[in-house]
Predict the 3D structure of the following.
Amino acid sequence: MEKHYLKPDEAVQAIVENGRRVSTQRRSVTLILSLLAGFYIAFGAQLATVVTQDAAAFVGRGVASFLGGSVFSIGLVLVVVCGAELFTGNSLLASCALEGEITWGKLGENWVIVILGNLAGSLFFAWLMFESHLWENGNLAEHSIAIAARKCQLPFGVALIRGILCNWLVCLAVFMATAARDIAGKIFSCYLPIMAFVTSGFEHSVANMYFIPTGLLIAAQTDRTIPGLTWSNFFLGNIVPVTLGNILGGVVFVAFSYWFVHLKYRRGATPRG
């Protein structure tokens, strides 16, 4: 009978085997797939912005955040089911490098191409949404600016910690989606951790590549000056610490941990205790 899911050790091995593509995949293919991931995460971010623009007034802030997280999860669902290269999820490729299946140089090259592609895709999508003028409906303009401003005003250390917590959950979502053997399982695996990180208020670098530029574009169009909401704060005050946090969260708490438990010990002693 066909298995409905992979056990954790099997999922780690599947992630390692999938990571071997980094050694042979053309850079142009990686770039296109990373652009698509930027679009997909931006779809989820835009949907979350629409849903949460006025929900708190009716159901409270906690439930509004839950609703935003629920719809935002469509971004990772599209990445996983349709296939794309997402920087945060690619933190799991560290397990492939730890296993010696790809070099650390190849891993670094993949990360650079993917994060630049994710950034370009997110910026293009932000421009598309700006040009659609949908932000003129309801409270979307004010809400988009407020989201962007809050993110740009975060202290470096706070943004770093929130980035760690975020990608810990994102990589667990990818881990579980890899373990799932059918579409329904993959969707549910993506939904729960993504809903949790958005509802909690953690920081996702690629999502912020959409949220903050959208707020910046709308603020400039409507002649609003918001303290801290600048392009330099977007890059240096948010994307840098959040990206570092995302790397630490995904690599240390998921990629390394499961590689160490299930692959390193498989070749050596059985763990004790």
Remarks:
- The chain has a mean pLDDT of 95.
- The chain has one domain: 8-264.
